[in-house]
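Entry 12.
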Amino acid sequence: MQNLTIGFIGGGNMARSLVGGLLNTGWPRDRICVSEPDEEKRDFFAHQMGVRAVARNEAAIEGADVVVLAVKPQVSRDMLLSAEQALQQQRPLVVSIVAGIRERDIQRWSGGGLAIVRAMPNTPALVGSGATGLYANELVDDEKRDVAESLLRAVGTTAWLGEEKMLDAVTALSGSGPAYFMYFMEALEEAANKHGLAADTARLLTLETCLGAAKLAINSDEDLRELRRRVTSPGGTTERAIEVMNEAKLPEILHRAFDAAVKKASELGEILGRD
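Predicted 3D structure (tokens):
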């Protein structure tokens, strides 16, 4: 698989993390090319990461078996329209990590008939702990699915989705999710500060507690409800804290927030797909 050539369109943080992940898995540097209009970013890819960096998108598409779309959603239409001829000539597997841009719109703007995988990675991919939902159109065969999965697994875990609309739920879960947990940790840290813990101690214990809880869940076959029950001793401090959260209807608040995020993701997909 590492004899395939990958062209990245866009050299932002997510492209940088994917390139770094691929290199860490042993992907040959001469099999990676990044197109990026910003000269400083091109210099980083060329000199710090040792991969080919070019200014023109067509140069990254030419000869590529896989093309990764990693531009901002607002410029994706113009980028695809300008690259249509190159994409049609090369006909690579297209992996889009552009948030919100639907498969049908990628097809429409790139000339149609392309094997396309939409991927929704999240920001922890920047530290190799990403969680990515993947959707493949009908032109993506098993071999291409393996290629797309290998690409995203270089920066974390992956999960395939049977319907494209499920990417809106993935956006609300793993895409926006890191912010939810940061928000919760922020509140815990502030509460610990209020009760006299030093700022650095509160931060350390908050972060390590969150990390430890996630590790416990990952390494257990039990569901989250059962794991929580095991930590919640009858009549103890944890039980009292959870009672307060239930009194405040925290689960209902989280469901409403999730629903709102899914709805917004769907709305943005429609807006971004307009000509």
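Annotation: The chain is about 55% helix and 15% strand. The CA atoms of residues 91 and 114 lie 6 Å apart.
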